[in-house]
Amino acid sequence: MGKADLHTHTTASDGAYTPEKLIRHANDKGLETISITDHDTIKGYLEAKPIAKELGIELLPGVEITASWMGMETHILAYCFDETDQDVLKLLLGQKRARKKRMVSIVDHLQKQGVDIDIEEVKAEAGRGNIGRPHAAEVLVNKRIVASFGEAFIRYLSSEKLKDIQTEYSSLENVIKVIQNAGGVLSIAHPGPMYSSRQITKMISMGIDGIECIHPSHNFAVQRNFSKTASSNNLLITGGSDFHGKGKTDYDPYFGIVTLGDQHVSSLKRMAQRRKEMVV
Ligand code: AMP
Ligand code: ZN
Ligand code: FE
Ligand code: FE
Fold first, then answer.
1. Overall pTM surpassing 0.90 (yes/no)
2. Which of 8, 68, 97, 245 is deepest in the core (most CB within 10 A)?
3. How many domains is the chain partitioned into structurally?
4. How many Å apart are CA 136 and CA 116, to the nearest integer?
């Protein structure tokens, strides 16, 4: 049976591997299908396309979008949308701006707590990647303000610590509309303990197409429960390793191990195909 990983990150956002290195790594691990789901950008996916073609790996268009919903930042995985669709590109550009503004606010918030950090340091850490909290965490580690990446999140960068920061991320309603109009499908990323069952039901009623049941943060019972919810609502089951590159998160050892079966990949592609036929 073919193995797939539909959740990975590269240097185009907060991953450590370049798109090319990621595809080569996937090939070494025997993955047949992969999706690069960088945070709010498809640059890594676009860069990886020719390499995937050369190696004979199936690369599905993907992106992990941060959407505003009920006062939370929710992560939504989008797949198989038309990557040239102007509304998708406009959405991602808005998200990039929202990330930059948010980071200015985060740095400001840290400075007010007496933390010696500057926005230029975080920008330098992000390089050409879409800026995010892991880049700020790296700065804090490099400057020995914290002892580890994890500590940076616990002390300064968790959602709880940043709950008063206003963001301009797109609404979930808009994300669903734009991606589906571009022939794409959407899955709730790593729902784990994040949402109540009422919230999951609400997202389903809003038009979400799938649930990321398979994720390194889900134990077997969690995976089974979400899979049941997905099946009883005729939703897609998606999954992947959420690989960010060595050392960046606890999930990295699961690359090539936490995988999705090819029957789920086929269902996803079929749904996206049907949607494209309806859209046109
Ligand atoms: P952002 O896109 O700026 O909201 O940052 C989200 C990313 O931060 C996630 O994809 C992870 O890579 C990382 N992250 C979030 N929470 C933690 C945590 N508690 N420990 C380590 N990394 C985290
Ligand atoms: Zn990330
Ligand atoms: Fe995520
Ligand atoms: Fe992710």
1. yes
2. 8
3. 2
4. 12
